Amino acid sequence: MNGVCSPASVLYPCLSVFESLHVRLTTFQLTLETKKSSFSDMIRKARVPDVQAIQSLINCNADAGQMLPRTLNELYEHLRDFSLFEEKGVIVGTCALHVSWEGLAEIRSLAVRQDRMSNGIGSALVRACLAEAVELGSARVFVLTYQGDFFKKMGFADVDKGELPHKVWSDCLNCVKFPNCDESALMLSLSAS
């Protein structure tokens, strides 16, 4: 196979297209791992006994107008999507990665306890979700959020909501703000095109 012209092929001129893609994905994974803070050992997947604490954390942030609330039913149905940030046995942050479509995942329900905000916990949770998205084979990750600037600092860019697959909007039908959504849509590509 012929080599490709990409940053990976400049460093490794004999790479095939597939080898180059692997190097780019591996480089992305290494970048994610390098950027992980000392927090990485404080992040774990959610379990059934965590649901009440997750809901409390999310709905506290929702009450402050920072996100939309979640019902217990939604949380139990999507429990496997959630990662938690835990300090000394206390859940202080949560974030979910939901696979929406082929090659597309969504970051949902990023919430950090008010007294622990601006300490890198939210960024660590998002990086953990992005690493999981890479492992699952998602090429793109989007977010619907009121915190657009936070996600832009992490490499996300604005995207027109109309570009998101119709399936994404099935969750919106149950939202109190439907059809007048005031969240921003942002997208991050995990692999070079």
Quickly list its features:
Aminopeptidase, disordered N terminus, 2 domains, alpha+beta, 193 residues, 23% strand, 7 strands
Question: What is the strand and helix layout of this fold?
Answer:
Layout: H1 7-11, H2 17-35, E1 43-45, H3 51-63, H4 72-77, E2 82-87, E3 90-101, E4 104-112, H5 121-136, E5 140-145, H6 148-153, E6 157-158, E7 184-189
Parallel strand pairs: 4-5
Antiparallel strand pairs: 1-2, 2-3, 3-4, 5-7, 6-7
Provide a descriptive summary of the structure in words.
The protein is of the alpha+beta class. It folds into 2 domains: 1-35, no CATH class; 38-189, Aminopeptidase. Helix content is 34%, strand content 23%. The protein contains 6 helices and 7 strands, in the order ααβααβββαβαββ. The chain has helices at residues 7-11, 17-35, 51-63, 72-77, 121-136, 148-153; strands at residues 43-45, 82-87, 90-101, 104-112, 140-145, 157-158, 184-189. Strands 1-2-3-4-5-7-6 form a 7-stranded mixed beta sheet. α2 runs antiparallel to α5 (121-136). 29% of the residues are buried.
